[in-house]
């Protein structure tokens, strides 16, 4: 009986569905989808959870007749739109810019992404060969603005030579990290949060602890170069893979950019 009623209601809806209704549903789905993607990218689920707790408190204040508490929360939610804009202004600005530039497709072609990958990989190898300490952060889905202290804004094209020059000991930005966002060097001289994991090797330096600390909080890919022994480490998900080679660097970058990795002959790559 219930199944037949459900089928009848479904048939009724389909028969009376207008083209405008279909467009309306598609637009609503797109907005909801973009909001969910934005939440995932920014890692702001904690703030949304806090708003959810306040909403539950508001409902309970009505049931339990907590008049003063209810008045405070009512004033809060009456200005919710403004509060959301203030809390998420950076994310909203970034999302609108992304939609305006290219709402459905990625910003860079596969060829451009491949060029960026090669320049990053060569830059890291070149930095290690010169004996410069380095931290290179490649942002992925979660925006890391809440987790780092920004340095000098650059918005520069990625090149191996530029990466090496940034980490030159006489460069004013050599102590911080380079942030690569959307295929460009977004900023340099950034400071990352140190890991608080007590189980880490006591011999790990500040750079390694900073790389691990950031990846414990975000899904970023971090390359760390030791100036003492010229070794390169890859850090993901709070895990350090030490003493990696060029092929490992390329593979990690290709996976980060969502491209199929093909092994290269290393002969002549850095010439």
Question: Which properties best describe this structure?
Answer:
10 helices, single chain, 271 residues, 52% helix, 13% strand, alpha+beta, 7-stranded mixed β-sheet
Write a structural description.
It is a single chain. It is built from 10 helices and 7 strands. With 271 residues, the chain is α+β, with helices and mostly antiparallel strands. Strands 2-4-3-1-5-6-7 form a 7-stranded mixed β-sheet, with helices on both faces. Helix 3 (45-63) crosses helix 4, helix 7 crosses helix 8 (160-166) and helix 7 (110-129) packs antiparallel against helix 10 (246-256). The longest helix is centred in the N-terminal third of the chain and has 24 residues, at 19-42. The protein is extended and about 75 Å long. It starts with a helix and ends in a 15-residue tail after the last helix.
Strand order of the largest sheet: 2-4-3-1-5-6-7
User: What does the radius of gyration come to?
Assistant: 24 Å
Number of discrete helical segments: 10
Number of strands: 7
Q: On the 0-100 scale, what is the average pLDDT?
A: 82
N-to-C SSE series? HHHHHHHEEHEEHEEEH
The proportion of residues forming helix, as a percent range, comes to: 40-55%
Q: What coarse outline follows from CA principal-axis ratios? A: extended
Distance between the termini: 76 Å
In short:
By secondary structure, the protein is an alpha+beta fold.
